[in-house]
Amino acid sequence: MAVLRVKFTKTKRDKLAQVLWILNWISVVTGAILFSLGLFLKVEINKRGELMAERDIQYVPNMLIAVGLIACAINFLGGKICYDCVDTTKFLRWKLIMLPYIICTFFFTFCVLVGALMCYSMRGELEESLNVGLSEAMRFYKDTDTPGRCFLKRTVDVLQIQFQCCGNNGYKDWFQIQWISNRYLDMSQKEVVDRLRSNVQGKYLMDGVPFSCCNINSPRPCIQQQITNNSAHFNYEHQTEELNLWMKGCRQALLEYYTHIMQSIGLTVLITWLFELSVLTGVRYLQTSLENVLRQGDPNSESDGWLLENSFMETARTNLNIIKSLGKNNHIDTANNGDPNINIPSTSKAHYGPDNVPPKQITEMS
Questions:
Q1: If you write DSSP's letter for every residue of 66-126 in order, what string do you get?
Q2: Which residue ranges does UniProt annotate as crossing the membrane (predicted)?
Q3: Is 341 a domain residue?
Q4: I need a labelling partner for 22 at 20 to 30 A (CA). Which of 44, 158, 304, 355 fits?
Q5: What's the whole-model pTM score?
């Protein structure tokens, strides 16, 4: 019994082919949109690549770029097929191609769905990459005279100003690293030397943050040094002062930024998947209805269209038997020392040597 059988008249078949032709061209545009979204995400990730660990997080934009290009090609071909299917005679040139086209398109729509799910599952890997990358960038913040790292100070400062954040998880992260280079420390001062000696690793640690952590909405001048020392500043309580510094960590700020982008892209890809699936369903109905018209021999007659000619279980059982039969046909009997030709009798009657030459030929040769 056919699954979701629908009866089509010639008028309905022609209208279906025309609508599918338009929808396939719309799908070409959606493919270009997917390509553009993948390219945009790739650029956004590369823009802050120095703040991320070297992890494989480029697979999502690469997947979207590939899916977008394939969508343009597949739907362009689908538009050509549906345009020709308005004429039953032109359908003959596509008859053998339409079923493989539908199967390939079905697997392609599955890839689109995978791309949408990947957009939502990327958050964990991105968070880990940002956590490691930001920690490394903060550790090398002071190395402004070191080749390959001299740009990190500006990158971190721009990040903290643009995203209104401070540190990796918060402003206290700066207390645990030396973010001022030794070249800017006055070693003649006893306080500086004592602070260096008091640290096991010889680092100059202090309760201070870079200027980029300052909150521009603060009503008082920004306090960057001795942040936890209430007595060092007038009318100041660091535990309740929330407008002095940016309180949000940069990892959370970047994660929210990229999550918003990926959720928007994922929703767009999911809608595209549903649209592609509906177009594919229409193409399947068009193909089966036209094939039934050819069996009937009358181009103007009514015909049935369906998604599956048999039930789901029967279709799965048939395909499984086909796969098993292919496996048996490709099996080679390698018995008897592994030689497949060992049991083939020799039919050759030609033998070489002087004993097997006819007497007449021996006389002539002599």
A1: HHHHHHHHHHHHHHHHHHHTTSHHHHGGGHHHHHHHHHHHHHHHHHHHHHHHHHHH-HHHH
A2: 20-40, 60-78, 98-120
A3: no
A4: 304
A5: 0.76
